[in-house]
Amino acid sequence: MQAETDAVAAGFIPERLARIDSHFAKYVEDGRLPGWLTMISRGGQLAHLSCHGRRDAEAELPVEEDTLFRIYSMTKPITSVAALMLYEEGAFELTDPVADFIPSFADMRVFRGGTAAKPVTVPATEPVRIWHLLTHTAGLTYGFHYVHPVDEMYRKAGFEWGQPRDYDLAGCCDAWAAQPLLFEPGSEWNYSVATDVLGRVVEVASGQSLADFFAQRILGPLKMTDTTFQVTGDDLNRLAALYVPDPQTGKILRNDAAGKGITREPRMHSGGGGLASTAGDYMRFARMLLGGGELDGVRLLGRRTVDYMATNHLPGGADLESFGRKLFAETRFDGVGFGLGVSVTVNPADYKTMTSVGEFSWGGAASTAFWIDPSEDLAVVFLTQLLPSSTHPLRTQLRQLVYQALA
User: pTM of this prediction?
Assistant: First the structure.
């Protein structure tokens, strides 16, 4: 794959665009990243493609254009698109209770005090609705947060960085529904398993497994031929190794225990974090959204639906800093709201990063990221493999380097 237009024609200043590569090359040279790939599209054409470093540092295999990366939570926008496709077909309304599709979500209870061992709960006064799942306002959580007693309850139930091996998606949803909610649905924002639950809604509403729905309705039509829940066979040669930072030196340490998960056949198809993909594939998904739901004559969503997806749905136009719990998420909180499955920039000055109002984005646990800026007709994909994504400020640095290069 090569750039489809030169930098000048795409509205970039070439010598400024080159700063992206020189800056992130330093992360590889000093051992903070194994390797990375950056792809920038503007005006519907690929304007910049660069990669540096290795997909496998120990074997000295380079990052290449077809390298497969675990995209983790960058699966979430794909699941959200799947749900919105069904919404467009009248399968549900955003205000419908999740219990209409997953009965175990009826009669939910809310944590009010006590401990993980002896929680004090009360009946929820508001049902968990589909829009709560899309916006992470359902009151669900992640076991890896290590902040709230309910986080501990998730861990005790087997949910920290994954799920029990014998659970399918339906079983996971029933197990999560058995835990109390952190808060009344719709009253706060908390990064959570909500998108995995949304994936189960997609399964029930469509009558297909999430993997089949993805393959037949999204990945196939968009020609995302390298995006998958399991990497096998010859494709293993293209799969990047997974790394974590050495707590003493900050340099990369290989983590095959976590990395091998993507090579096993999944019993539970995680709409919240289960996919591997390539930069080229994910850019096709991003360009579909930038194109108002259409790419190369294939339309997945209507233009109004994409606009609605990329609108801040937090009550009163709040940002995550004022409405969200101060926990880990794949975005900063100041000046950033949340739409239907994506973060949305509402105030770049509060965000303290050069960007645009209305930019929408998300990232993955291994430091991957993408964003779409409709006002600049711009889509950016950055892929690497370093857990966790909070290790380095890659996303904000990439934004300032991309925007300073615009003519």
Answer: 0.97
pLDDT at position 1 is: 54
pLDDT tens for residues 41-66?
999 999 999 999 999 999 999 999 99
The segments of the chain whose pLDDT lies below 70 read: 1-2, 4
Instruction: Tell me how crowded residue 317 is: count the other CB atoms within 10 A of its CB.
Output: 12
* Cα–Cα distance for residue pair 183/188, rounded to 1 Å: 7
Contact criterion met (CB below 8 Å) for 393 and 375: no
**Distance (Å, whole) CA 294 – CA 58:** 41
For residues 150 and 111, the answer to whether their CB atoms sit within 8 Å is: yes
Instruction: Please spell the DSSP secondary structure of 334-366, one letter per residue.
Output: TTEEE-SSSEEES-HHHHTSS--TT-EEEE-TT
User: At CB < 8 A and 24+ separation, what contacts does 115-120 make?
Assistant: 115/149, 116/149, 116/150, 116/152, 116/153, 116/156, 119/149, 119/150, 119/153, 119/180
Length in residues, the chain: 407
Distance CA 356, CA 115 (A): 43
Mean pLDDT of the chain: 96
Q: Is 134 left (phi over 0), alpha (psi -120 to 50) or beta?
A: alpha
pLDDT of amino acid 2: 62
71-110 tens-digit pLDDT = 999 999 999 999 999 999 999 999 999 999 999 999 999 9
Whole-angstrom Cα Rg for the chain: 20
Contacts of 199 (CB under 8 A, 6+ apart): 79, 82, 169, 210, 269, 270, 271, 272
* Helix or strand holding residue 66 (H, E): none
The pLDDT assigned to 198 comes to 98
**What structural domains and CATH numbers belong to the chain?**
14-50+210-403 (3.40.710.10), 82-206 (3.40.710.10)
